[in-house]
Amino acid sequence: MISRDLHLWLCQTPTDMRRSYDGLGACVRQYFGRDPNCGDGFIFINRRRTQMKCLYFDRGGYCIWSKRLEQGRYARLGSIEAGPMTLSTTEFTALIEGFDLVIQRRRKRAA
Known about the structure:
Layout: E1 8-10, H1 21-32, E2 41-45, E3 51-58, E4 61-68, E5 85-87, H2 89-97
Parallel strand pairs: 1-2
Antiparallel strand pairs: 1-5, 2-3, 3-4
């Protein structure tokens, strides 16, 4: 599984899930403007929002973590035009478990 100290980036643009190491590495360079060897994790989701891949570099080699949903869809966390989004490991876990990360309303707090 993904390390807790890994910095995670989410690609808001739908990605072709046929891409593997080199194709996703090219997406990292093009979309994020970053080096895929930097040690960060880069998350990609397909157009139908049923598949996810995470590319990261770990001690001398690329790793790809992948998940395909049998039913349902991954939540959309922002608009396609919004650009890359950073995620905490908690937000990433909530995303893969199917939780909606959008706050529907704010609760009043005691002063």
